[in-house]
Amino acid sequence: MVFYLSGGTVQSVSLFSHGPQVFPDMATCTRTVWKVLAGCRRQLLNASGPTYTGVSQTAQRNLPVRTFAAVRTLKKDKKEEPEKEEKKEKRVIDDSNRHKPYGKTAWAPVDDVYIIRHYPRTVYDVSDTIDMLKNFQVLDFTPRSQPVYIDLKLDMKLEKKRRVDPFVSTVHLPYPIKTQMNKVLVFTEDANQAKVAQESGAMFVGGAELIQPILDDEISADFYIAVPDMLPKILPLKNKLRKKFPKNKRGSVGTNIPKMLDLFKTGHEYMVESDCYVRTQIAMLDMPKEHIFSNLQTVLIDVCSHRPADMGPFIERAIIASHTSEALWFKSGDVLPKPAEKKQEE
Fold this sequence. Notes:
The chain is of the alpha/beta class and 346 residues long.
């Protein structure tokens, strides 16, 4: 429908030949369409920025009205503590009355050639392991003079979740491995003690004047011992010497210089590695069987002295091997002296 002015009066002319009565709501539909288009145009203008059109940019715009409520943000609660997984206790299976070990084929193999994982590991007596090492050397045509090592796994647990601290120890072997004596340096400023140290076989003796030569690598030794009065003065060497720094626990601090020198000149040092392992040499394979056994017993007794005996066995697993042989598990309890049985009170 179009409106025009004719002679002072407004007349309407329908654009439809069939008249406006056929579409009585056409005006309503047109207004609705224009509102929708206007809304789409506003959204486009807001997204792309102002554009120059016939409509003034300063004209009041109808901002869109949000017809829904915003979701209320939840307050963050305290950090939820992760649920602690309950540690499953290891299942201990008693195989004493079984015809074969649990998960294994049999107690012992029948043939000479077999798959190791199908049978329980054989643990030998100490005397048998020494004989086997010597036989391996003959069968493999390897040198007779080769070192013999042990590998011990220790149970470092104590009462009330305490643990034995990793330690370093020096033991006097009945049959020394080395032919040459260790170089020992003694820290003392007393003239009498210095004289006694030199007579007892110390390689170097002195006081604070030895600090700078040691830092400059002009002087080095296998072991360092000191009298108690010298400990505060040699503190600058703590980072340089590290584990060799004199300590009371290692027996390298004291006033009995001859006794300390006698230990460290021919002593054998070992330490706990990786929290619970002791790996050290105990003998040479060409030594007599009794000498190897004696050195092994001395080391095991010294290791077990670092934990109370009433806490149970300190050595969980013991292995012995030569430089070229396979590893053999042995019974460490047979080497250690058995505790004396308590007399029953009558």
